[in-house]
UniProtKB/TrEMBL annotation:
Organism listed in the record: Hirschia litorea
Primary subcellular site in the record, as a coarse category: cytoplasm
Record-listed ATP binding positions: 243
Domain Aminoacyl-tRNA synthetase class I anticodon-binding: 341-445
Cited function: Catalyzes the attachment of glutamate to tRNA(Glu) in a two-step reaction: glutamate is first activated by ATP to form Glu-AMP and then transferred to the acceptor end of tRNA(Glu).
Protein name as annotated: Glutamate--tRNA ligase
Enzyme nomenclature, EC number: 6.1.1.17
Amino acid sequence: MSCKVRFAPSPTGRLHVGNVRTALINWLFAKGQGGQFVLRIDDTDLERSTKEYEDGIKQDLTWLGLEWDDTFKQSERFAEYDKATAKLKADGLLYACYETAEELDRKRKIALSRGRPPVYDRAGLNLTDDEKAKLEAEGRKPHWRFKLSGKPCEWVDLVRGPQAIDTASISDPVLIRADGSYLYTLPSVVDDIDAEITHVVRGEDHVTNSGAQIEIFRALGGKTPQMAHTPLLIGADGQGLSKRLGSLSVQQLAADGVEAIAIASLLAKIGTSDPVELKDSLQTLASEFSFEKIGRAPARFDEKELMALNAEITRGLSFEDVKDRLAALPLGDKANDAFWALVSENLQKVDDAAIWLPIFFGDIDKADLEADDAAFIAGAAAYLPEGEISEDTWSVWTGALKSETGRKGKGLFMPLRLALTGQAHGPQMNQVLALLGREKVLKRLG
Ligand code: GLU
C-alpha cells in the first residue's frame, strides 16, 4: 500500500523553519515512497485563522517546491466532526463537564498541593441528569471530554521507537469547548481516518496527544496511522527558536535572498545521521530520506550553516540564472557575464551583488584614506600601463609602484583596493581592474 501523509498547519501565521521542517519531512517521506502529500488547513479556530495566512502558507510551500497532491480545510468539515461527536456520545465516551476555568485551576492546585498529578477528576462523568439540568439552568454550558481508557496506550514510533503513554496520567482531553467549538484533537483524527492517512508525522510536542488520539482512532473504528514524532529545532546557541521565529519565516528568508534548496538541504539533514551538504533537488533529498536516520536529540538550526549553503548555491548559478534578479537591482540591467563571474565567488546571496553594481557600473564615494595613502593614490595613475587594461595590467602596474614607492603587501594593495572599489575585501584585483576599465580607474585615482 502506498503511503499518504498530511501537513496540517493552522493559518494563524506564516511558515517558519520549525514547521517547514515538519512539512519537508512529510513530503520527503511521501515522495521517496511514491506516496501522497496532503495539505490540511487546521482552521477550526475561526477567530485566529485568516484567509491571508492560508494563502501565505500555500505561497510559502509552493516557493519551497513542496507541492501538495490534495488540500482541504477543517472549517469545511464540521458536519463530519458532528457525526463523530454523536458516535462518541452514544458510546458513552464523550461526557459533559461544567467546571469553569477558575474551578479547574483550583482543582489542579489542590491536587498538586496534595502531591498528586493534576489530572482531571472526572467529576463530570458522575453527574446525574438532574445535576446537569440544574447546572444548565444556572446558565452553565457544558464542554465535552473524551473518556480515556486509563490504560497504557502503546505504539512503535518510527522515530522514537516503542512508546507508552499511560492514559491514567493525563486528563481526559476536552474535545469541544463550552461555546461549541472544536479543539484540534478530534477533527484531526476524523480527518486522518477519512483521508486514509497512513502516517502521522509531526513534532515531538504532540507525543502525549498521540496517546489520546490513538484511543480516539480506536473509538471511532478507524485505522490508526503509523506515528513518527521528530525532535524539535533549537538554535545554534542550544536555545529554543520560538522568540526568533519571525525572522526565520519562509517569507523573510526568501525576501533576504535565501534559496529554497538551501533551506531544504539544511532542514532535511540537521538532526540526522547524514552530513549537511548542498543537494541539487528535493527529489535527491527524498531518495535519501529515512526515519531511521533521524536522531532523538534536538536538531540544531544554524543560520551560518544556512548562509554557507546559500553561498555555495550562489557560486554555482550562471549569469542566465540570475539575470532577471540582477535586473531588479539598481544598475542591475548593466550587469553582464563577466561581472557575475567575478562577483559571484564572494556572495552569500544573489542580492548581495547590489554592493558591486555601482562599483562597476556607477559611481562610488571617494575613499577616506590616510594622508600618505591618499598621496600614494594620487601618484599611482602615472604608472598605469598604457592601452587597454587586461588581467595582466595589475601585476605590471603594482610592480612598477612597488619599485617606485618601496610599498609592498597590504600597504601597496589596500589603498588601491579602497580607492578603486571602496571595499576592503572583494574579488581578485587584476580582474577588478580589467572589468572597471581605464576610464573608471583613472577617475577613481584622480
Ligand atoms: N495543526 C496542528 C499543529 O500545527 C497539527 C498537528 C498534527 O500534525 O497533527 O500543531
